[in-house]
Amino acid sequence: MEHEIVNRETPEMKELISGIREMTKRLKEIAETHRPLFGGEIYLTGREVCERLFISPRTLQDYQDKGIIPYTQIAGKVLYRLSDINHLLQMSCRK
Description:
Elements: H1 11-33, E1 37-38, E2 41-44, H2 46-53, H3 57-65, E3 72-74, E4 77-81, H4 82-92
Antiparallel strand pairs: 1-2, 2-4, 3-4
InterPro entries: DNA-bd_dom_put_sf (IPR009061), HTH_17 (IPR041657)
Organism: Porphyromonas circumdentaria
Protein name: Helix-turn-helix domain-containing protein
């Protein structure tokens, strides 16, 4: 049985390295955008809510204080249900 020497310059190795890089890139994209479900709900951070509503963190705090936006606090982290944000947008939409 003959053994073949494989190094980084062989076409097979270049293809393998390219595939690994592409897979790593895709996994990073998924990790950055993936939102786990809790009880079937998607939760957003305050920053994500501010970006979606085009409001400042202070305005978001005012909305919380006034009961306009419901929120959940888990271990000191404030989270907002996506369904609540979508409902708020639907109720605020002018026809």
